[in-house]
Design goal:
Helix content is 62%, strand content 2%. The longest helix is centred in the N-terminal third of the chain and has 28 residues. By secondary structure, it is an all-alpha fold. The chain has one domain. It has 20 helices and 4 strands.
């Protein structure tokens, strides 16, 4: 990276942190706009439950589940959550810093849910999100042969022409930004292996650990990402040229480290549900499988995929361009998109409830960045300027909408465009 790239990414991180902290400074803790509320509290509860309360619900502060939007619940002496442990693992260093700060300043109150722990989510999500964008940028420069200006257009398009900005700054503490970064890192490592034509200790170790994180962050994504992973692994047929240089001792350590998050999840599953592999969403189902409405999923003002993440249109265009240019493998990304679409369209809540845009696609922007890059790579200088202006205008409009958005779309108003356009106000 050039010096100015390092400076620019520092400013990107600081800018995201400012947006996140500023947004949450307008709301007190234990409010539905706060960092630790509803789903986010359900992801976070692992840390205070283990670190402060010995996994015993009787030790929890009074009414803390209610105060944090019932993202978790208690039953007898158990602390129960349906959300996997991955977010808590990713946030662990920041949660420990928050715990240390509370201890130094002798903060009283609900330990694990103090102001410091709320702020830790802002820092954690922004740092992870910035790292994901950086990995995407490096992949574009080093392996996809984009120019620096094209690579910046790519990462800003992925950030501001989607709901990734929202889940990095507003709804920090959800799993999507963390998964985005894990996917970006996996993609970077695989493309680096293909380019260097070697698998070494560091690459296999990181891949194992990242794969483990992907599982404990959002297990269903393991099914989705098989398609882009197959594309990365097969489309160039380079694997017979790749040399392997791995020390068994290093590989053993990597396997143990990779298994740690999974073993923690299994341990919790056994504690909470009496079995090592448990589905926290067991009472929710794919009840819409007979009446899937893809138009609503893609174009409704209620979390419509293309309405809130228009950058994905570039991914579809990229697939078409790749087919025209005889890259038949590129159609796998269309299969990837349709697999995610059909899965969520058949879910009992196709829009996934409260949120800005369809969050089921947010983390997958890391992989969809490749077909988007096929479009940007072919842009002329004048087209690049034009797209830069368009990206900036649409990005500002989406930012205004997400800043005014209250968090949940009203039930029964899936096609209420008047409500949507009411969010375009300064």
């Amino acid at each position: 990276m050039r010096l100015k790239d390092k400076v620019l990414f520092l400013f990107i991180g600081l800018g995201l942190l400012f947006i996140s902290l500023n947004r949450h400074s307008h709301h007190p803790i234990f409010n539905y706009h706060s960092q630790l509320f509803a789903d986010k509290a359900g992801y976070h509860i692992y840390f205070p439950a283990w670190f402060y309360y010995d996994m015993d619900a009787r030790n929890l502060p009074d009414s803390i589940a209610l105060k944090t939007g019932q993202g978790f619940w208690t039953e007898d002496s158990k602390i129960l959550t349906k959300y996997p442990i991955g977010v808590a693992v990713c946030q662990l260093p920041f949660s420990l810093i928050a715990a240390l700060a509370d201890k130094i300043y002798q903060v009283k109150g609900p330990l694990g849910f103090t102001n410091a722990h709320h702020l830790a989510l802002n820092w954690s999500t922004v740092i992870w999100g910035t790292l994901g964008l950086l990995l995407l940028f490096l992949t574009a420069i080093q392996f996809w042969n984009l120019t620096y200006s094209q690579a910046y257009l790519l990462i800003f398009g992925v950030l501001i022409l989607s709901n990734l900005l929202y889940y990095t700054t507003r709804d920090c503490g959800m799993s999507h930004t963390y998964s985005f970064t894990v996917f970006a890192a996996i993609q970077y490592l695989i493309t680096r292996i293909q380019t260097s034509k070697k698998i070494d200790n560091s690459s296999i170790s990181f891949l194992l650990i990242l794969g483990s994180l992907a599982i404990v962050l959002r297990p269903i994504n393991l099914f989705f990402i098989l398609t882009p992973l197959l594309y990365l692994l097969l489309h160039k047929n380079l694997w017979k040229e790749i040399s392997i240089n791995i020390q068994p001792s290093i590989l053993s350590v990597a396997i143990i480290l990779a298994f740690l998050p999974i073993s923690m999840q299994m341990r919790y599953n056994y504690y909470a549900f009496g079995k090592l592999i448990a589905d926290g969403y067991v009472n929710e189902s794919f009840s819409n499988i007979g009446e899937m409405n893809l138009l609503r999923l893609w174009f409704s003002p209620h979390n419509g995929v293309f309405i809130y993440s228009p950058i994905l249109l570039f991914a579809i265009i990229g697939v078409i361009k790749s087919w025209v240019n005889d890259n038949r493998w590129g159609v796998m990304y269309l299969f990837y998109f349709m697999t995610i679409s059909l899965t969520y369209a058949s879910w009992w809540s196709p829009g996934l409830g409260c949120g800005f845009g369809h969050r089921g696609f947010t983390e997958h922007l890391a992989f969809f960045a490749m077909p988007i890059s096929w479009v940007l790579k072919t842009t002329t200088k004048s087209q690049k300027r034009w797209w830069s202006v368009c990206f900036a205008i649409i990005g500002v409009l989406l930012f205004i909408v997400q800043y005014n958005f209250d968090g949940c779309w009203p039930e029964g108003r899936d096609w209420d465009w008047n409500l949507f356009f009411n969010y375009f106000k300064l």
